[in-house]
Amino acid sequence: MRKWYRERYLDLLGSIYIYNEHRGYTAIDRVLAAIRARWLDDHVLIAEVEKHRADERKHYLMFRRWFERRGTMPLAVDRTCGHIDRFVGIMFGSTIDELDPQTVIGRDDLFERMCRVISLTEQRGHRQVQILLRHGIVQSDAQMMKIFRIIEKDEPSHWAPYEKWLLAHGRRQSRWWERAIDQAIHSELLFVKLPILFAASRKKRLARWPDEADELPRAINDIEAVAA
Ligand SMILES: [Fe+2]
Ligand SMILES: [Fe+2]
Fold first, then answer.
1. Coil, helix or strand for 100?
2. Of the ligands numbered here, which is closest to the C-alpha atom of 18?
3. Which regions of 88-151 does DSSP assign to beta strands (E)?
4. For residues 91 and 119, is the Cβ–Cβ distance under 8 A?
């Protein structure tokens, strides 16, 4: 029973993370294209967001290797398990895919909202990783610990460019109600979605790796990730 519980926990944790990392870098790709178009000369902002993108791709690949070593595919979790999907859905009233980055970046009021959503999501991710690094089951898996230590180190540089943009443009920081939404999404994932997934023993596995459907060819994806 104990062994089953441990395996199930790691399986689910890895599946939720690989979904979120993939979601992360593919969503940043779209934001990045729009930033490059609007703030062509802001090399610092572009470089920082490129670094963010490359890190998320690197995180994705680390989880992919973790699954490859186990010899299983990730469980098929959908966007209801994606923190950023839920957050964007509430704050913008549409899915990430339906949101047009050109429109968001063309309007400062929407872009500042986006900056706060990304920043809060990254800060939440950092706190969550610190909790996981103290978790007994995670500690029992050396490769998983290595992955989370790297993520913990990377995360602070992820919210920095968006916070800097808000500051440089005289925009406000997040308010209590935005932090409350972030907290509610997290609690829902932890206390509602996760127990349901845990109990669903016949949960299907992915047939293909999520990045097989990426627009960027794998070689370019990997060069960007290695450069991180
Ligand atoms: Fe990440
Ligand atoms: Fe991140």
1. coil
2. 1
3. none
4. no
Q: How far is the CA of 192 from the centre of ligand 2 (A)?
A: 23
Among the bound ligands, the one closest to the CA of 23: 1
CB 9 within 8 A of CB 137: yes
CA–CA gap between residue 32 and residue 25 (Å, rounded): 10
**Helix (H/G/I), strand (E/B), else coil: 205:** strand
Closest listed residue to residue 218, CA positions, set 66, 57, 72: 57
Q: What is the CB-side half-sphere exposure of residue 200 using CA atoms within 13 A?
A: 14
Nearest ligand to the C-alpha atom of residue 151: 1
**Residue 228 above 60 pLDDT?**
no
Ligand 2 ion: nearby residues, β-carbon < 5 Å? 122, 158
Q: How far is the CA of 7 from the centre of ligand 1 (A)?
A: 22
User: Bridge partners of 75?
Assistant: 205
pLDDT at 224: 59
Convert the pLDDT of each residue in 108-141 to its tens digit: 899 999 999 999 999 999 999 999 999 999 999 9
- How many angstroms separate the alpha carbon of residue 37 from the centre of ligand 2? 23
| Cβ-based neighbour number of residue 126 at 10 Å | 17
One-letter amino acid identity for 222? D
Gap from CA of 47 to ligand 1 centroid (Å): 17
| pTM, to two decimals | 0.90
DSSP classification of residue 48 = H
- Rounded Cα gap, residues 57 and 60, in angstroms: 5
